[in-house]
Design a protein that fits this description.
Elements: E1 3-8, H1 13-22, E2 28-31, H2 41-50, E3 53-56, H3 60-69, E4 76-79, E5 91-92, H4 101-107, E6 110-112, H5 116-130, E7 141-147, H6 152-160, E8 172-174, H7 184-191, E9 198-204, E10 210-217, H8 227-237, E11 244-246, E12 267-274, E13 279-286, H9 290-304
Parallel strand pairs: 1-2, 1-3, 3-4, 4-6, 5-6, 7-9, 11-12
Antiparallel strand pairs: 7-10, 8-9, 10-13, 12-13
């Protein structure tokens, strides 16, 4: 039987990506509002309560409002906004988080899709904190760079449309220098950290693709873990994984480029280091529009609807 799905916010960057991944599938029936009706509250309410599953691609407050409109108890919801990622009653939509998370998603009525920076950070932090290699109260620093598509239509226009007021020809920007980026609470909660990480994101002049880096002074860590121990903790945690993979130490290279996983749902983890100086860096490589947004949403949708997890995805 075909499941019906309504993407609320289908004309935004993430919504368009999800729609493209679902539009050719015969096992999904997409419900849609005409563009002129997208702000019609009654029309939205009708589809929000008619679909088997709703995917919210909205700003945080609008996502909360949309959830409040749903009174049909059979409707399942995936929220791609930040609004519910640490909220009670919502399941965190990272199937690879631990051995139980996939089943929790399958049974859930409400799933919060992870953020792009956050899913890579959590994928790196959670296994090594759980293994005792990184204390929960360690002062963690995260540096990251994303393609400008991660900022949605406004940032895309700023980098591509010379006619807009915010247009820039800058090759690179560091931002969120108030150190209060919206992904920080999510990373702290699901990364298992006692304190907010110091997170410094940046955006560069390319469309999509992301690199997240967590540098570690291994000599300062309790137990002085080796690069091999960090790598093994990640490899054990994601052994047999479909969409999160750990590059072998002997295959790790001297440089990484952010666009190599574009148009996939893969998140690839690397461990680099200098044993002599006791230094290491954990790196996550992904498509910010794939595993970092729409790919994760489709993966979660498949699980919630009892379909093959990788249907419609590559990676």
């Amino acid at each position: 039987m075909t499941a019906t799905v309504f993407i609320d916010g289908e004309h935004g960057t993430t919504g368009l990506q999800i729609q493209a991944r679902l539009s050719t599938r015969s096992d999904i029936g997409l419900l849609s509002l005409p563009h002129a009706e997208r702000r019609n509250t009654d029309a939205r309410r009708e589809l929000l309560n008619k679909a088997d599953l709703v995917i919210l691609c909205l700003p945080d407050d609008a996502a909360r409002d949309a959830v409040a409109m749903i009174d049909n108890p059979t409707v399942k919801v995936i929220d791609a906004s930040t609004a519910h990622r640490t909220a009670e009653g919502w399941v965190f939509g990272m199937p690879e988080y631990d051995t139980e998370q996939r089943a929790k998603i399958a049974d859930a009525a409400r799933v919060a899709n992870p953020g792009c920076y956050a899913i890579a950070s959590i994928a790196l932090l959670h296994p090594i904190v759980s293994a005792g290699l990184l204390p929960a109260d360690w002062p963690v620093t995260i540096n990251a760079v994303s393609g400008y598509s991660g900022g949605g239509k406004g940032l895309i226009a700023a980098f591509e449309d010379q006619a807009v007021d915010d247009y820039t020809d800058a090759p690179f920007r560091v931002y969120a220098l108030g150190l209060g980026h919206k992904h920080v609470p999510e990373i702290q909660r699901w990364g298992g950290l006692a304190h907010p990480p110091l997170f410094v994101p940046s955006v560069a002049r390319y469309s999509q693709g992301m690199i997240v880096q967590i540098p570690l002074q291994l000599w300062a860590l309790p137990g002085n873990p080796s690069i091999a121990q960090l790598h093994q903790a990640l490899a054990d945690h994601y052994a047999g994984g479909r969409f999160i993979t750990v590059a072998p130490l002997d295959a790790s290279v001297d440089r990484l480029e952010p666009e190599v996983l574009n148009d996939t749902n893969e998140l690839r983890l690397h461990v680099f280091g200098n044993e002599k100086d006791g230094q290491g860096v954990l790196v996550g490589l992904l498509d910010n529009l794939g595993k970092g947004a729409s790919g994760s949403a489709v993966q979660n949708m498949n699980i919630m609807l009892g379909l093959d997890e990788g249907e419609g995805l590559t990676g």
